């Protein structure tokens, strides 16, 4: 009995006190290790080296000599920013969690344009569609003068089930309009499965719109087999009257895969500006100092097998608003779309 | 020597006979700490403080013990040393100046375990300590065990489901009919383990649910060579009456799995239990 108690107690003691040994070594928090971890993280998970023509090894060779364990957090931040600057990718950014340091965007567009000035849902509600129905901050709909439907998505960030619940009622309201404007000018991204579903509500014909492959191993060319994504008819009916899809440079990620999907349908015309040029799924990873960095893991291609990473989807009709237009309460892009559909 | 063997043989017969059939229902509440290093998600070590609940049923037969147990736990989940980590707002005010507010980066670990086991008595013994009688038994058997770890933190650390077939060893000791001790060791022989794919994302081009996609893309056969998960379960119960006992239970496990990238997990749980027989 005494032996049993001793053996049991010793086993439990051994188990409870060997946490560090049982978990294995943890990378220590030094500036050098933070630099190494971030470089290795992109090396192991980023999916766009080839399509964006990034020489990742040369970036290491150029920056590593300037990294030392005597660096301050600000100096480390500056070096890490230099590391990711060449990506120019909306899905590559550094998010510090200390020292009040701001997010560093590798995307030139997002670094130079802090706030969107060419679109405002408030202007639309006040001056064009007072009857605009708000489902939530990122989903609005209504009927414009001339029996033109209006549907706005600010993102596809809710679960697919949310859209499957809301969209049938919305489409029922817009069903008998003679045309529709689908507005994704400030679409920040979300779930590609939602892109596929919502595009299916407008599908006259099933169509391939995208192939995706994602990193599956530490080699830079280790990718999964391609997955093919199709627009297929969704809902009890499909809206097949003329549609104008409005986009801008702020239309990003799942907003862009949605643009690909909608552009497969003959009744859809894309109008506005080229989209942001960042399509893939993105993951967040951590550094030993607790900072976060974000990595696009995929290689996404359109139906023709072409990558538009860093390029974006160009509209059929180019038109933009100036800041002064929106400040004056005028959405000239919307007005032009209404004129075309009238 | 021969006399001692005879006494032991007789005692073991007494011991087997003394092993009356019994059904026991157990409820336990406890506290658990989990440490995790999931290199597929993060170089940081994560830890939790979790509240736990346990529901158990044991049927002791003449030759063996059938057991079923469900455990649930949830608690804050954060990298060691970074509990209060803040995410600074990446946005800008209308005039282009950066926003200064920040928010706490949350994370919760959800952990559930379900196990059914059967152990068969292999040996038994009977000792006298002072005036008190000690009956002890050794059992060997097997179990089916499924445990799920899920976290909602920003880097998706620790997503794992493991359905394993395990070898079991158990030792019990009953002192003077009032004090019951047990220790059980469980080691998986093979398993079906599910983790996120290497790229740590889930999306389905065919409209499948995320759960279905997770299991379809992330499941692999595992065996002792690439999956180790030693579990120790030790308990003490005091029989307050013939039908009711109270006790304490310790559970600890160490898990290592190497696919896609290694995950190491270490867990300790202590619970107060009450049992009805």
Report on this model:
The complex is a heterodimer of chains A (about 350) and B (about 280). With about 350 residues, chain A is of the alpha/beta class. Chain A has two domains: about 25-115 and about 280-295, 2-Layer Sandwich (Transcription Regulator spoIIAA); about 120-275 and about 310-340, 2-enoyl-CoA Hydratase, Chain A, domain 1 (Alpha-Beta Complex). Chain A is built from twelve helices and 14 strands. In chain A, α10 links the parallel β9 (about 245) and β10. The termini of chain A are far apart. In chain A, about 45% of the residues are buried. Chain B is mainly beta and about 280 residues long. Chain B has one domain: Lipocalin. Chain B is built from two helices and 13 strands; from the N terminus they run αβββββββββαββββ. Chain B has helices at about 1-20, 210-220, and strands at about 20-40, 45-60, 65-80, 85-90, 100-105, 110-130, 130-150, 160-175, 180-195, 220-225, 225-240, 245-255, 265-275. In chain B, strands 1-2-3-6-7-8-9-11-12-13 form a ten-stranded antiparallel β-barrel. In chain B, strands 4-5 form a two-stranded antiparallel ribbon. Chain B is elongated and about 85 Å long. The interface between A and B is large, with 56 and 54 residues.
């Amino acid at each position: 009995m005494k032996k049993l108690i001793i053996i049991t107690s010793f086993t439990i003691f051994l188990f409870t006190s060997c946490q560090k040994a049982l978990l294995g070594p943890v990378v220590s928090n030094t500036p050098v290790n933070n630099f190494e971890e971030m470089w290795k993280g992109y090396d192991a998970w980023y999916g766009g080296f080839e399509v964006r023509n990034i020489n990742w090894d040369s970036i290491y060779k150029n920056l590593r000599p300037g990294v030392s364990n005597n660096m301050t957090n600000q100096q480390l931040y500056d070096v890490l920013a230099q590391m990711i600057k060449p990506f120019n990718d909306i899905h590559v950014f550094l998010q510090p969690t200390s020292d009040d340091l701001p997010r560093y965007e590798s995307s030139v567009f997002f670094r130079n344009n802090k706030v969107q000035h060419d679109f405002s849902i408030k202007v639309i509600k006040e001056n064009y569609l007072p009857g605009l129905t708000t489902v939530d901050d990122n989903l609005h709909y209504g009927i414009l003068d001339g029996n033109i439907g209006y549907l706005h998505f600010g993102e596809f960030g809710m679960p697919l089930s949310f859209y499957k619940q809301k969209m049938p009622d919305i489409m029922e309201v817009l069903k008998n309009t003679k045309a529709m404007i689908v507005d994704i000018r400030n679409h920040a991204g979300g779930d590609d499965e939602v892109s596929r579903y919502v595009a299916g509500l407008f599908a006259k014909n099933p169509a391939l719109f995208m192939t995706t492959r994602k990193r599956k191993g530490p080699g830079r060319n280790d990718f999964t087999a391609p997955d093919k994504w199709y627009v297929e008819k969704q809902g009890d009916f499909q809206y097949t009257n003329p549609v104008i899809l409005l986009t801008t440079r702020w239309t990003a990620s799942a907003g862009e895969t949605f643009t690909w999907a909608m552009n497969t349908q003959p009744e859809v015309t894309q109008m506005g500006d080229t989209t942001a040029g960042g399509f893939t799924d993105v993951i967040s990873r951590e550094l030993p100092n607790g900072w976060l960095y974000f990595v696009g893991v995929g290689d996404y291609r359109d139906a023709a097998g072409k990558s538009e990473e860093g390029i974006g989807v160009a509209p059929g009709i180019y038109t933009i608003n100036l800041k002064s237009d929106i400040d004056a309460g005028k959405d000239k892009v919307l007005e032009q779309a209404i004129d075309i559909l009238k | 020597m021969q006399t001692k063997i005879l006494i032991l043989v007789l005692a073991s017969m007494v011991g087997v006979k003394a092993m009356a059939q019994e059904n026991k229902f157990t409820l336990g509440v406890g506290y658990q700490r989990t440490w995790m290093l999931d290199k597929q998600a993060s170089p940081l070590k994560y830890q939790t403080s979790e509240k736990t609940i346990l529901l158990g049923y044991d049927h002791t037969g003449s030759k063996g013990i059938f057991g079923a147990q469900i455990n649930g736990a949830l608690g804050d989940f954060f990298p060691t040393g970074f509990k209060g980590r803040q995410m600074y707002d990446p946005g800008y005010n209308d005039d282009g100046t950066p926003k200064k507010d920040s928010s706490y980066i949350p994370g919760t670990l959800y952990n559930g375990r379900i196990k059914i086991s059967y152990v068969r008595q292999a040996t038994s013994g009977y000792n006298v300590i002072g005036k008190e009688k000690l009956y002890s038994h050794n059992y060997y058997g097997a179990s089916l065990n499924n445990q799920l770890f899920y976290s909602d933190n920003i880097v998706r650390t620790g997503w794992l489901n493991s359905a394993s077939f395990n070898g079991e060893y158990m030792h019990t000791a009953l002192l003077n009919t009032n004090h019951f001790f047990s220790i059980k060791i469980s080691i998986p022989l093979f398993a079906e383990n599910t983790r996120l794919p290497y790229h740590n994302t889930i999306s389905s081009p065919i409209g499948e649910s995320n759960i279905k996609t997770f299991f379809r893309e992330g499941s692999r056969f595992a065996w002792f060579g690439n999956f180790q998960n030693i579990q120790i379960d030790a308990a003490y119960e005091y029989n307050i009456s013939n039908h009711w006992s109270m006790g304490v239970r310790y559970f600890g496990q160490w898990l290592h799995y190497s696919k896609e990238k290694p995950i190491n997990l270490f867990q300790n749980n202590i619970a107060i239990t009450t049992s009805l027989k």
